[in-house]
Amino acid sequence: MPVYAEDWRGVLADPALCKIYADGVEKIDERIGSFLSFNAADSESAIGGKGSLDGIPVAVKDNIAVKGRPLTCGSKILENLIAPYTATAVERLQAAGASVVGKTNLDEFGMGSSTEHSALGKTVNPWDFDRVPGGSSGGSAAAVAAGLVPLALGSDTGGSVRQPASFCGIYGLKPTYGTVSRYGLTAYASSLEVIGAMSADIDLLQKAFTVMSAGKDERDQSSVDSDPPGSGEKRIKVLDIPEGVLDSAVAEAYADAAKALSEAGYTVESFALPSYDLVVPAYYTIATAEASANLARFNGIRYGYAPDYAENPVELMKLARHEGFGDEVKLRILLGTYVLRSGFQDQYYGRAQKVRTLIRKQLADLFQSADLLLMPVFPTQAFLYGDDGMDDYRQRVADVFTCLANLAGLPALSVPTGLSKGLPTGIQLMAPAFAEERLFAAARSLSKIYMPQLAPCALNPRSFS
Amino acid sequence: MARAQDEWSLTAELARLKLDETEALRLADEAEKMRELFQTMSRADVEGLEPTTHALVRENRIREDDVSGFDHVGDLLDASPETEDEFFLIPNVL
Question: pTM (2 decimals)?
Fold first, then answer.
């Protein structure tokens, strides 16, 4: 089923259509579990704007604030928190006419690659209910692939928009760091993360990005004005991948996409990243260090879960964190605290920051003679729940292709490339800072060959009336 | 391994994380694997490189040193588990 944003216009404004829509979501999401909270009836744009997104229902990952709606971050520690304000990115979408209809499931605080680490619900892949939707923005990706919304927001710290988008067969954009305000995004790793968007409609995705990145936000000190470098000369480098890293379906899709881009008029050459082996260690050292600092605020005092009783203030904090956080969050706090410890800081955190400089320099050199970098998204397609071959450690190591863009602050887009063995495949394109336009142009070239499809179970807005 | 276990216990203490016995063993094992991965960065030649704190910082953002209001005080207090007047109420810890 091809998807068109136009099909959605008018649904929310008409109470009868809105009821059919909400009933349809309830029925499908009983099986998918993409939403942690959904309320289409109460979704009129807070600002009442009209613009390029007029009437578009949007799902928002539940670590991004929307006033009056829950903000759980997929964690028991924030299970009962209602957001007191709205994130700038969401405000801008609303001002352009979009309406938030629900908040989506995620790995707790965005830490994971499968949404298995949510404390509040299970989300499955709409293409195969025995498989994960990817993560950490798994609920957003599943909601779009299941036709429950045409557009969803996620956050991307190391691939959390692009990887689930790819697992679910849709587009996932990680913008240039700073182009979309992080005001209202619950902080996990501040120097790496951005708010990104997902859709099966490349035009709608581009409109959403244009709206969200329209000028820096005074409320986010790291936000910047976009400064595009031009459309480039259609020169693509293809990342060399060590033997045996990619599974056969992903390897085939990767080779086919390079060929398709070549046929579409791009010059295609291979590229070996000298510091390939350092990407994951540097990324996880920095991400966990920043996580340990950012999550220190969850201490059972100001908001969120608190135990009924504690012997002393330190015990209160420990109990709140013990009972409120899940395993993956505890592990990352533990690692981050370790790499920042006096005596270890130079060896781990300090070194990772220098490796980050090295990686940035190598990518800057690359983009002297290339306009885009083609990469896989993840070494496998969506994997099965409980897959022994894809334990938590392997999932972290598999972030190599996505976390590269976060270390360098560069924009990257995952692009669906059809199906293999009944499951979506995809590739990833990365561009120099602020060159999102090049990503959209290349994705449009590929969309002529690989028309994005929603899952067979998907809701179809054309059937509402 | 026992020494590694002690290191992770001390780190948990610094992170204000209380871990029960099986949890501590499981997390120490997983953390040790990640530490070994981090250790591979020792092979990198980073001589003379400045650390990156933010990938794309173009300017040091400053603002006028004016007093400005914060509109969400009441909303934030409402979001806390318990309040008394204008204060957060926390569990009795004495």
Answer: 0.96
